[in-house]
Specification:
The complex is a heterodimer of chains A (about 425) and B (about 325). With about 425 residues, chain A is α/β, with parallel strands linked by helices. The radius of gyration of chain A is 21 Å and the shape is globular. In chain A, strands 7, 8, 9, 10, 11, 14, 15 and 16 form an eight-stranded mixed sheet that branches. In chain A, strands 1-3 form a two-stranded parallel ribbon. In chain A, helix 12 crosses helix 13. Helix content of chain A is about 45%, strand content about 15%. Chain B is mainly α. Classes of the chains: A alpha/beta (about 425), B mainly alpha (about 325). At the A-B interface, helix 2, strand 8, helix 8 and helix 9 of A face helix 1, helix 10, helix 12 and helix 13 of B.
Chain lengths: ~425, ~325
């Protein structure tokens, strides 16, 4: 028995690097710091870890309880992601939330977290219809989802076209996977509503070779290209668009196709490329002074500090902030500091992060207003459009946070989630 | 001329160019397989490692900076200055030769006379090691690679071909990527140099002798270990060229190692032992997949070129199991 305990403790240390105290709030990080997707995974994991470190160092944790952030390397591999979930869910007093930054891992974890009663937050990725909290009780995808993104991108194209898309052509260049296909249904509906022609152009993973697709775009000359890519596919697409001299301000990527590493390889050719984003980019916010003072400057940063302020770093920080705010809410609702995963879900369902709260956190305008409920696990659904300035090597926001067409998105999400509930014999719960 | 015909020519030409890029990767496999019978699973990672090293030298990055900083608490990242592309390429080549020597000294030497599957497994291990080592040495961030090669569409070619279209038709001219043109020229030079080297130098003849028969070559005094170092060095050079061409397109990132997947159908088709086979195989695969994507893809939902390349290769296998140019294996029973 004693040997087994020792073995368990040793394996915990092996996974986490540190052994969390039983009373810690455990926020595991299923990160990927190795492999082809590491350039995205590292800054995200760094931002996530650094924000939690900031709360520990500056505030003593949340409500006086320290936060533990055991990391487990998934390599963006779905099987490893599931293994990491299994090996971290029992750490300390139990994991409170999972945010795996992978649609593949998310899909595999949905039935597991539902059975185990642990909240899963797939922030702007994963299964879109998980926004229906009546069916997906343990899954959340606020502040926005892919279908929100599709309608926001179309709205931006419409704004650029003088408010009318009738007769225009929009091409969707997408990763030929469940992720890339997510927006198709929504775009087909928008095409009917707005009168534009939709062309679908898939690219097989990993997307290193896209000559055929860009020759097609060059021949057909769509008015806009919407883009759902990830990893190396992003950089290649931006380079090919520049090569064929496609007007870059008419090339609009989803938020996972708009980080610095996606545009830097194309040099000046990437100038003007646009992508959606749901977080602020840069480090001109009060919270970054604290990150510097308590984390980077104190030698406690997860990385070397060079990622601070980049798209993925800030997104990691934002994910951590949403998780910690939910934990804070959970403490408030349960009246105890040592919350359980069930308390955490209650906190997430009562989460409100508005402008005033962001200001108080030293993160004014860092993200859209987030308001979650029992029925709505998808938040308010808003994103901004950012544009790459190649000379300054920086993203610049060119719009405010724009609302999605939530009427359409909610209708589609209800259809999809109800079909899922029927297939899986789930009786949607009542929400008051 | 009818724009539809011009479009066909454009797709065909771009297929040829893409095929050259695949051939550059396939060449590295062929060289090693020819000389040692090893299917080098690590060839894609070697291209990645070479490109990482090149960018590291060009930007003046300190190798193992993260490790040094973590151990000693320092803040070193760069030497303060980079170096010209040509010098960096030469230095990278030195590193690749050193790598070849290390591979021979610590991996291959101990596996002489082992089954091919054992050697193949060793290269799988080598691939994982090299990927991790490259990460540790140069970091895993995406790096921009610009060695001064022209890139982007050619205006001149667009203007020339626009005139070919029938009057009144809306035709924008043919597209050709200057980076692909550069790759084609480099591939021609590379293959010519490799051919001359193997035909007209003593070392080249020794390489061919080893390729023909290891034991016979050893019996006339050819050092197998020396030949392996040379062959892995040449393969490292080819990996560097492939890494430069592919890295210039997408930036140098760890998915660069996946370019090996593009070489497999080329090898199946062209044969594992033929340099011309790697080139011709690449061209056939390049043209085949691009035409299929353009004309068959829309009928079946698109994104077919990856698997279509394997279909083409397998179709050839049915007719010529040894590949188009591969040596026919006759075994005495």
């Amino acid at each position: 028995m004693k040997f087994k305990s020792l073995l368990l403790a040793a394996s915990m240390v092996a996974v986490t690097g540190v052994s969390p105290a039983l009373a810690d709030l455990v926020f595991p990080s299923l990160s990927y710091r190795t492999g082809p997707f590491a350039p995205n995974g590292i800054p995200f994991a760094d931002g996530y870890a650094d924000y939690l470190t900031l709360l520990n160092e500056r505030d003593g944790g949340i409500g006086g309880v320290k936060i533990a952030n055991p990391e487990c390397e998934t390599g963006y591999n779905t099987e490893k992601g599931v293994e990491c979930y299994e090996s971290t869910k029992g750490i300390g007093s139990g994991a409170l939330i999972y945010q795996p930054l992978s649609t593949g891992i998310t899909y595999q974890l949905i039935p597991k977290v539902t059975a185990d009663g642990i909240p899963l937050h797939s922030m702007a990725y994963g299964r879109t219809s998980a926004m229906n909290g009546k069916v997906f009780e343990w899954v959340f995808n606020y502040p926005a989802n892919y279908w929100d993104g599709a309608t926001i991108a179309v709205q931006h194209a419409k704004d650029m076209s003088g408010g009318d898309l009738n007769g225009k052509t929009i091409a969707l260049l997408y990763h030929n996977s469940a992720y890339g296909k997510e927006p198709i249904r929504t775009l087909e509906e928008k095409a009917k509503m707005e009168g534009f022609n939709l062309t679908l152009i898939p690219v097989d993973s990993p997307g290193q070779e896209q000559k055929s697709q860009w020759l097609q775009i060059r021949r057909e000359r769509p008015d806009f290209v919407l883009f759902w890519g990830w990893g190396v596919m992003n950089a290649v697409a931006v380079q090919e668009a520049a090569n064929i001299r496609f007007p870059m301000d008419h090339f609009i990527g989803i938020w996972w196709s708009g980080a610095e590493q996606d545009v830097l390889p194309a040099g000046d050719g990437a100038n003007g490329y646009k992508s959606l984003n749901f977080t602020y980019v840069g480090k001109d916010k009060p919270v970054f002074a604290d990150i510097e003072k308590y984390v980077v400057g104190a030698g406690k940063a997860a990385g070397d500090g060079s990622n601070v302020g980049t798209v993925q770093y800030n997104r990691g920080m934002y994910a951590a902030m949403l998780a910690t705010e939910a934990a804070r809410k959970a403490q408030e609702l349960s009246g105890k500091a040592d919350i359980t995963a069930a308390d955490m879900r209650n906190g997430m369902e009562a989460l409100v992060v508005d402008d005033a709260r962001l200001e108080a956190l030293g993160m004014p305008n860092f993200g859209p207003t987030v308001e979650v409920s029992c029925a709505n696990h998808g938040g308010t659904g808003a994103a901004l459009v950012q544009q790459w300035d190649a000379s300054a090597k920086a993203w610049k926001a060119v719009t405010d946070f724009m609302p999605a067409d939530r009427e359409l998105v909610t209708k589609l999400a209800m259809e999809d989630s109800e079909a899922f509930a029927k297939e899986n014999n789930i009786t949607p719960r009542e929400c008051n | 001329m009818n724009p539809a015909i011009l479009n066909f020519i454009e797709i065909f030409m771009n297929g040829l160019m893409a095929g050259i890029m695949y051939s550059l990767v396939a060449l590295g496999f062929v060289l090693i397989f020819k000389a040692s019978g090893i299917f080098n699973f690590a060839q894609g990672v070697m291209a990645l490692f070479a490109a990482l090293t090149l960018v590291g030298f060009m930007t003046g990055q300190v190798p193992f900076a993260h490790l040094i900083n973590a151990i000693f608490g320092t803040e070193v990242h760069t030497w303060g200055a980079g170096m010209p592309a040509l010098l960096a390429i030469l230095l990278t080549m030195v590193v690749m030769i050193a790598l070849a020597w290390l591979i021979e000294r610590y991996v291959l030497k101990h596996l002489v006379n082992q089954e091919p599957i054992i050697l193949f497994m060793a290269t799988i291990g080598l691939a994982y090691f090299l990927e991790g080592f490259g990460d540790l040495m140069w970091g895993s961030d995406v790096k921009t690679l610009d060695v001064g090669l022209p890139s982007g569409g050619s205006f001149w070619w667009e203007d020339v071909t626009r005139e070919w279209a029938a009057a009144g038709s809306q035709y924008y001219g043919m597209y050709i990527d200057l980076l692909d043109v550069s790759a084609t020229i480099i591939a021609i030079v590379l293959v010519t140099a490799l051919t001359l080297f193997s035909q007209y130098t003593a070392t080249g003849r020794a390489l061919r002798a080893v390729a023909d028969d290891h034991q016979a070559a050893m019996s006339v005094g050819i050092s197998l270990r020396r030949i392996w170092v040379i062959v892995w060095s040449i393969s490292g050079f080819v990996a560097l060229v492939a890494g430069i061409m592919w890295g210039s397109k997408s930036g140098v990132q760890f998915s660069l190692s996946l370019i090996a997947l593009k070489a497999l159908p080329v090898l199946i088709l062209g044969g594992f032992t033929s340099i011309p086979g790697a080139i011709i195989g690449g061209l056939i695969i390049g043209v085949g997949e691009k035409l299929a994507e353009a004309y068959v893809g829309p009928l079946v939902g698109g994104a077919i070129e990856n698997w279509f390349a394997y279909v083409v290769a397998l179709a050839f296998l049915l007719v010529r199991p040894q590949g188009l140019f591969g040596d026919k294996i006759i075994e005495r029973i």
